[in-house]
Amino acid sequence: MLRQRLKENAAREREEKMRKNIAESEARRDKVEEKNFNENSDGNEINGDSSQNSTLTFKEPSFDKKLNSSPNFGQKKEKSPEKKLKSIDSQGLEEDESNSSSQAPDFGISGKKE
């Protein structure tokens, strides 16, 4: 019986302490929110001093117009097949048209036995 009362009292005290902490936290939060609102609403300080009006200015980010003007900005540009062939030809790696139908050499990777 005595233990039950002690448990109830302890539970009640914890609950009251928790409610008190929550109320204090909400009061602090409300105070901070009100302070921020008063500072940002018209640029005046909390005390109403209008001699220190401040305005917030936002600058647009400046990008290099050459880079930003492309509709595919930031995308990797792939070469067309014709340009790829021309670059291969310019390196002297031309493919012989008579051998184009023959198979590539098998180095034992394909699994076929010769």
Q: How would you describe what is shown here?
A:
This protein is mostly helical and 114 residues long. It has a domain at 2-43. Helices cover 47% and strands 0% of the residues. The chain is built from three helices and no strands. The protein has helices at 2-41, 65-68, 81-90. The radius of gyration is 39 Å and the shape is elongated. It starts with a helix and ends in a 24-residue tail after the last helix. Residues 1-114 are annotated as: Disordered. Residues 38-57 have a biased composition (Polar residues). Residues 1-37, 75-87 have a biased composition (Basic and acidic residues).
> Which value, in Å, is the CA radius of gyration?
39 Å
Instruction: Report the structural category.
Output: mainly alpha
The ordered H/E elements are HHH
Instruction: Show unreliable segments.
Output: 94-99
Taken as a percent bin, the fraction of beta residues is under 5%
Biased composition (Basic and acidic residues): 1-37, 75-87
Region (Disordered): 1-114
Biased composition (Polar residues): 38-57
What is the compact description of this entry?
With about 110 residues, the protein is mostly helical. It has helices at about 1-40, 65-70, 80-90.
Provide the fold topology:
Layout: H1 2-41, H2 65-68, H3 81-90
